[in-house]
Amino acid sequence: MQKSMKQFIPTLTLLLISSANAQQAEPTSTEISALPTEAFKTPKISNQNNVQSISNEPVVTQRVNAGNIDKSDKSDKSDKSDKSEFQAFVQYSTGKILNLYGQDFFSGSPSSFAPLQNTPLPTDYALGPGDEVVIRAWGGVDIDYKTTIDRSGNISLPTVGTISLAGVKAGDAEAAIKTSVAKLYRDFSMNVTFGRLRAITVYVVGHAKRPGSYTVSGFSTLVTALLASGGPNSVGSMRNVQVKRNGKTVGNLDIYSFIAKGDKSGDIKLQDGDTIFIPAAVGHVALTGKVNTPAIYELKSQNETLSNVLEIAGGLPVIADPRRVFLERIDPTKSQPRNVEEFKLDNQGLNRTLKSGDIVSISPITPDFSNAVSLRGNVNQQLRIPYTNGMRIRDLIPNRETLITRTTIAKRNFEGLDVAT
Q: 0.90 cut: is pTM over it?
């Protein structure tokens, strides 16, 4: 009996194992019914588990100052204390503290600059390596794909292949990608947006307040980088800021034209590795007295005229006297280097060429009248009328009511109310 049981057990085990394997091999009814549905599903290309909103987060600026990491941020007080020798000379000569024109434009700039978040991407922005592209499509093909342009300027989309986007403008990116996808799929709609944009490194050198290297957004302009560096220092030029690229000067910016006229034609877009050079100013002159914007102005060239500087200053107020303008000039070749001149603001005076170190003072008009007769004192109304030949006192005081002051009339009216009550 025991012998027969030993022979039976291996046989039973073998039968059980074979039965289990047979059950695994059989497809369930659910799996069989699902096969036709899977076969006709819309093609899907995705590397996103969950659809998330994409925000263009700013790139944190990293600054190197004179070869070392900046250890402390300069405050507005330190910027204002950066006074030039000419500013001190003007204060000594006129007793007035004049700021450099345009300096206030940079006074509120942050010590470390980052672009604004979620700003619209310009349609003419040229795509390049490091830019993040988000592709979504629906209809004949389902695409939810986020990718970054590689060093070769391409993106790789599964089942579609490689698409070149280097140099393609942001406004044309959707059409370029849609053209490539349309070679394989039809009847679909597409939307292309952008995530994190590439950062570029630019160098600010010369007479800048905070020279060094700056990491800024890929669509930053020259003004953006100047704001980051605090602009020119007290001797740096605001009228000839240069952008150098591959050993050549590719742009010049006159900050005065931008501030005074809103002209941004020189505000070019920066590229990775650009050098912003701020040379020394050609010279400075001071405008004081009755002028709309008293300040110290930079000369753009050696032939700058007074008319050009007055235009930047906003001209003269109505109380300025164009007949009396004083010019203090320095001539180091003479034994007495300082002298003063007086002239009128006629065509000859406006076209006068200025020199570095000039101080121009415009006088106010005098308050006296050339033909006025005034009536003051205890009168009903103070008058100032033009003088005419043969004028008499009764022309000013035609009757006695003219000598009754308004205070007297008000007092009588008040006393009349008391009597009535």
A: no
